[in-house]
Amino acid sequence: MREDAESGAEHGAGAQVTVAEPWEGYDDLDAPDVIGRLEGASSAELAAVELYEGGKRRRQTVLSAVERELRRVSDRGSTN
Fold first, then answer.
1. Secondary structure (DSSP) of 4-62
2. Do the domain assignments include residue 15?
3. pLDDT tier at 73 (50, 70, 90 boundaries)?
4. Residues with Cβ within 8 Å of residue 9, at least 6 apart in sequence
């Protein structure tokens, strides 16, 4: 049995995903400014921040704040 890979596969398999800034000017904000905007954000906005931070900036303070807000959003949804 023989297995062949596509040309270029040796450089990494799979598609590359690029996540855009969650909102315009995001990259110019410091962590406290981002965290301030998370309060009251929708779960979709929080997910966008989480994806962006996890893949690019990796600021633990922002990621922790996103987790807290996601729990809060989830808790609000379960009480309705």
1. -PPTTGGG--S-------SSTTGGGS-HHHHHHHHTT--HHHHHHHHHHIIIII--HHH
2. no
3. confident
4. none
Domain count, the chain: 1
pLDDT in tens, 7-19: 665 666 678 878 8
The residue among 15 and 63 whose pLDDT is bigger is 63
Distances (CA, A) of 43 to 47, 50, 65, 77: 6, 10, 13, 11
What's the token pair of residue 41? 């954000």
Hey, what are 4's tokens?
Answer: 């062949």
CB atoms within 10 A of CB 66: 24
Supply the range of the domain harboring residue 52: 25-78
Query: What single string gives the DSSP state of each residue in 54-67?
Result: IIII--HHHHHHHH
| Position 14 in a domain | no
Eight-class DSSP state of 3: -
